[in-house]
Write a structure and sequence with these properties.
Layout: H1 8-11, H2 13-18, E1 23-27, H3 32-43, E2 47-51, H4 57-64, E3 69-70, E4 83-86, H5 95-103, E5 107-109, H6 110-117, E6 123-128, H7 133-146, E7 152-159, E8 164-167, E9 173-177, E10 192-195, H8 209-220, E11 227-231, H9 235-241, E12 248-252, E13 258-266, E14 269-276, E15 279-286, H10 291-306, H11 311-320, E16 329-334, E17 337-342, H12 347-357, E18 363-367, H13 372-377, H14 379-386, E19 391-394, H15 410-417, E20 421-423, H16 427-437, E21 443-447, H17 452-457
């Protein structure tokens, strides 16, 4: 019988099992990360299908590409699968998960399967960190592509212009996000391991910052790692890299191996010199806003240079980079008001995004807290970060995989923010209120890691794609 939480990749069992696999079924196939794996599997000749509870754009796109997507059910086509791939977000009482267990169909986590697929690539650049993984992965992939290295990339956000997290490339370079949640990134085999930062996140798994840093240290110490790229500015990242046996390249705006100098900021971006070990390489004109994106660019530059890209190509790619989906993504302008869509859901991310959007007009933020555990444990930091906006609307918490035993509510967070914060239950109602209040010259950011972006920008604020 299949057992739960089996780590196939590290034991070698995965490779042996895959010799017998022809049909793969994905639970939650419509998510950005899962549909990347589905597409990679189909391109390798496997018969791929899956289920998704919501008929999201991603699921529809897979169906149009010939990959069948079904509503989840105990009697779904999963019964004919040779293997089932699931994400951590799938609860163990999910009907298809239970069916696979009952029938003895091997259950493989998304992380383990990605770990298996990446073994075919010679250079594997894994981007880890509490914040910035998607943007750095996309920037690094763009830099390697500009350098003619034709990377394959698996990113947890939509990449323009394809609106997908997958870049199909050659088998030489593979750029991927390495998520720390449930120690998922320990299933991977990066040759270049990047840590952008290491803060306490995922309080439903990590007990504290010390445990978080230990996890990142284990990632940097994986046997496959030949070199590491680590933030010189982030204390957690520095602690995780202490005493590593492999060469470490640091990045940062201040003193670091790869750094930025002569920074000139403007609304929507910044210019800076790219410095390599104290020598000026050239100048970058970054078209995404915020100090955090300068750091993201430096991390991507350090990783791409470590993988062999030329500095000219790196600077060109960074200067033409326009961002990824839901990372301060400009969605459009309506009646003189500019609207952004953002994934931020941690105090550090919220602070960075709101600081980047400060302009002459008022800044409105519609925020959907993500999970009860995170909201409860990071409550003071969330309240302080949200105060950076001139007007804040809190909608109901996005539960994701969780129950709410402590009774935490968005209404309480709105009260803690104080001032111009208010609670409005649904994203749709919040969008109507903000649209009535905003005036020409104002900026509105729709923020959160749940479904708030799709609900608002596919409804009340639908802009042409």
């Amino acid at each position: 019988m299949a057992t739960e939480n089996t780590v196939y990749t590290r034991s070698g069992k995965m490779t042996r099992m895959m010799r017998k696999v022809r049909k793969i079924y994905f639970i939650g196939i419509g998510g950005v990360s899962m549909r990347v794996l589905a597409r990679m599997s189909a391109e390798r000749g496997y018969l791929v299908s899956g289920s998704d509870a919501a008929r999201a754009e991603g699921a529809i796109a897979l169906s149009l590409a010939g990959i069948p997507v079904f509503p989840p059910a105990a009697n779904s086509p999963i019964i004919d699968a040779d293997m089932v791939v699931y994400s951590i977000a799938v609860k163990k009482n999910h009907p298809e998960y239970r069916t696979a267990l009952r029938l003895g169909i091997p259950l493989v986590s998304r992380a383990d399967f990605l770990g298996f697929l990446m073994q075919d690539y010679r250079e594997r650049i894994g981007i880890a960190g509490t914040h910035g993984k998607s943007t750095v992965s996309a920037m690094c992939s763009a830099a390697l592509a500009e350098a003619g290295r034709d990377p394959t990339a698996a990113v947890g956000a939509e990449l323009p212009p394809a609106h997908d997290g997958y870049r199909r490339g050659g088998r030489e370079f593979f750029v991927f996000e390495a998520c720390e949640y449930y120690d998922s990134f320990l299933s991977f085999s990066p040759t270049v391991a990047v840590v952008t930062n290491a803060e306490w996140e995922h309080p439903d798994y990590f007990r504290d910052l010390t445990e978080t840093i230990s996890s990142f240290r284990a990632y940097l110490s994986l046997p496959s790692v030949r070199s590491a790229v680590v933030s010189a500015e982030d204390e957690g990242a520095r602690r995780a890299a202490e005493g590593l046996a492999v060469p470490v390249t640091t990045f940062g705006i201040g003193r670091a191996d790869v750094s930025a100098g002569e920074i000139q900021r403007f609304f929507g971006g910044a210019e800076f010199t790219l410095n390599l070990r104290g020598e000026v390489v050239g100048r970058v004109r970054l078209r995404v806003p915020g100090r955090h994106n300068i750091l993201n660019a430096l991390a991507a530059a350090a990783a791409a240079l470590e993988a062999g890209a030329e500095s000219r190509a790196v600077m060109a790619a960074l200067s033409s980079f326009r961002g990824v989906g839901r990372r301060l993504e400009r969605r459009g302008e309506l009646d003189g008001v500019i609207y952004y869509d953002d994934y931020a859901h941690h105090p550090t991310e919220i602070t960075a995004s709101l600081s980047a959007l400060r302009g002459e007009g008022r800044l409105f933020c519609i925020y959907q807290p993500h999970t009860y555990t995170r909201t409860a444990e990071l409550f003071p930091g969330l309240a302080a970060a949200l105060r950076l906006a001139d007007s804040v609307v809190l909608v109901d918490i996005y539960a994701a995989r969780e129950e709410n035993p402590r009774g935490i509510e968005s209404r309480s967070l709105a009260a803690a923010v104080g001032g111009n914060a208010r609670y409005i239950p649904t994203p749709e109602e919040a969008a109507v209120w903000v649209r009535e209040q905003a005036r020409p010259g104002d900026t509105v950011v729709v923020m959160g890691a749940g479904d708030i972006g799709s609900r608002i920008f596919c409804g009340e604020l639908a802009f042409p794609s």
